[in-house]
Design goal:
Elements lengths: L10 H8 L3 E2 L6 H13 L23 E3 L2 H11 L34 E3 L4 H8 L18 H5 L15 H10 L9 H9 L10 E3 L14 E3 L9 H4 L6 H12 L5 H6 L1
Parallel strand pairs: 4-5
Antiparallel strand pairs: 1-5, 2-3
Helix pairs in contact: 1-2
Length: 269
């Protein structure tokens, strides 16, 4: 797991990051890229907030991420996962003693003496939790309704509905991002972006992806930007001298960043 050190959100820092932004898909018009640059240049908000989604396409062993720590719950965890005697490691169970450094201390203790710990490698995240800067949301998933094993084995999907395309890895990736099987075109993040756009001064920068094209960030109106692993998808005309003329390149850059006084010109630019 990689952690990104938060940085003060200044206009200069935003402009530096904005230089890495590009629209997904080469067919989108250059004018929209220029509009994004203009929005970035005009950015002056002091209350910037972002919802960040780190999506694990390969899946995650939840029970070895947030782990039962109190004795009664740990014993159940250890029995299921083949742990060793005396609450030691075994099978795919971690030793209880190894979890002590990442023990979570909620502000309000859980009922019944229930305790959890993070995986021993997640000391940073455990520290954030214990300072009130992170939270754990339990019982999250695409399950339609509570269901027993007997109900699952029933063929009555009207009475006992289940998530679509179970055991299909690609479909489940899509379900988690959009509530629909593979082929979905919009996702949770994009729909949140649709709702948030009306409150944003720079609407074209509502949804930004750093991992390529993703259904999670696709909305009905919100457009998704992406940064490739090799860097930004640049506007060629602004990446070097145009017609071997630095003056022309400078003029195009000025046009891209210029704020117009006329409302229609400013919106088009």
């Amino acid at each position: 797991m990689h952690f990104i050190q938060p940085e003060k959100h200044t206009r200069r820092a935003f402009l530096r990051r904005a230089g890495q932004l590009a629209f997904t898909g080469a067919a989108l018009p250059t004018a929209l890229n220029l509009a994004a640059m203009a929005d970035a240049a005009a950015f002056d908000a002091t209350d910037y907030k972002a919802l960040v989604c780190v999506f694990l396409n390969g899946g995650n062993d939840y029970a070895n991420t947030v782990i039962n720590y109190d004795n009664a719950s740990y014993d159940q965890y250890s029995a299921i996962r083949g742990g060793g005697a005396g609450r030691t490691a075994g099978g795919i169970a971690l030793a209880q003693a190894d979890l002590t450094p990442t023990l979570l201390s909620p502000t309000v203790p859980l009922a019944g003496g229930k305790q959890y710990a993070m995986h021993p490698a997640m000391t940073g995240l455990a520290g954030l939790f214990n300072t009130g800067a992170a939270a754990v949301q339990l019982n999250v998933g695409p399950l339609v309704a509570p269901i027993t094993r007997q109900q699952y084995q029933s063929s009555n999907r009207t009475l006992y509905p289940i998530p679509p395309k179970l055991f299909s890895h690609n479909d489940q990736q899509s379900v988690w991002q959009s509530s629909q099987a593979e082929g979905a075109t919009t996702g949770w993040g994009g729909h949140i972006g649709d709702l948030a756009m009306s409150s944003n001064t720079s609407r074209v920068l509502t949804c930004i992806s750093v991992t390529g094209n993703t259904v999670f960030l696709s909305g009905d109106s919100a457009l998704s930007y992406q940064v490739s692993t090799g860097g930004a998808v640049r506007i060629n005309a602004l990446n070097g001298n145009v017609y071997n003329s630095a003056a022309v390149r400078g003029a195009m850059t000025q046009l891209a960043l210029q704020t117009r006084t006329h409302v229609l010109e400013n919106e088009y630019n």
